[in-house]
């Protein structure tokens, strides 16, 4: 174990994380979305069907009130729609609209472009090594 190197590795990793966050925020800017809204759209797309607001909050690891605010803004932008849950009148289901699906494809294309620009300085074997290392670090820890 190289404990003397660990703080420098952690600092370097955090610098990369900050750069990724900054570039992703810049990529989202033209769409008028923040990272929380983008994450919500991705969760809804992965789910592939309407989901309860509470479940969305749980997936995003936020309180229900914050999820309500996110869904409010996405609904105003016509990216998601709300409907009553037929199984429970008190519950609300949230789903992507067609506009939301198109916007999400555009966001993913912009994020992919950012990723290419960010990691393009690495050759393919370095990218493979980095992927393998990051997978090892995050395995069973999320």
Q: What can you see in these coordinates?
A:
By secondary structure, the chain is mainly alpha-helical. It has one domain: Arc Repressor Mutant, subunit A. 66% of the residues lie in helices and 12% in strands. It contains six helices and three strands; from the N terminus they run ααβααββαα. It has helices at residues 6-28, 35-47, 53-60, 64-76, 98-119, 124-138, and strands at residues 51-52, 80-85, 88-96. α1 packs across α5, α2 crosses α5 and α3 (53-60) crosses α4 (64-76). The chain starts with 5 loop residues before the first helix and ends with a helix. The mean pLDDT is 90.
What is the terminal separation in angstroms?
A: 23 Å
How many beta-strand elements? 3
Along the chain, the helix and strand elements come as: HHEHHEEHH
How many discrete structural domains?
Answer: 1
* Secondary structure category: mainly alpha
Strand content: 5-15%
Instruction: Give me the Rg, rounded.
Output: 18 Å
Any descriptors?
elongated, 6 helices, three-stranded antiparallel beta sheet, 142 residues, Arc Repressor Mutant, subunit A, mainly alpha
Please outline what is shown here.
The protein is mostly helical and 142 residues long. It has helices at 6-28, 35-47, 53-60, 64-76, 98-119, 124-138; strands at 51-52, 80-85, 88-96.
Topology:
Layout: H1 6-28, H2 35-47, E1 51-52, H3 53-60, H4 64-76, E2 80-85, E3 88-96, H5 98-119, H6 124-138
Antiparallel strand pairs: 1-3, 2-3
